[in-house]
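Researcher: I'd like a structural prediction for the single chain below. Treat it as a standalone chain; there are no partners to consider.
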Amino acid sequence: SPLTWFGIALVAVTLALCAGSLRLPAWAAHVQRHDYSYGIYIWHWPVIVMLREVLPPMGPKRLTVVSLAVVIPLAMMSWHLVERPSLRAVRRWLGKPATRPEPVAVS
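Model: Treating it as a single chain, here is the predicted structure.
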């Protein structure tokens, strides 16, 4: 029934939000230095469309793996060659420091 699918979607979204808000010490240093998420968001659709046109038909799992193999390097290049330099230039132009402020303890 539609209500069952709504419940499944609601649980899936809740779990995704909980997992996304976890603080994992092993990933903390990497996450603070690089943010490839916007590049993945921007590049995924054009890459999928291109791959479906260029490659022979394939199943969704294989298309996902092949797409990720192309999208992740593109997102990394986009971050290092476009996004990060642009953010630094804007910060210089606005006169704001490029470093993150230290967290303030609330008592």
